[in-house]
Write a structure and sequence with these properties.
The protein starts with a helix and ends with a helix. It is mainly α and about 40 residues long.
Amino acid sequence: MSRETNFLIYCMERYRYYKQLSGADVAELFDRYDIYGYVLK
């Protein structure tokens, strides 16, 4: 995996833990606000 992908996974896990959300909820939020594109860009 690339550094960007590893960082994206790290961000998702930290956000999930901090906000006490499920992985699916975090994935939906990241997709809705195009966080994936921002981090991978």
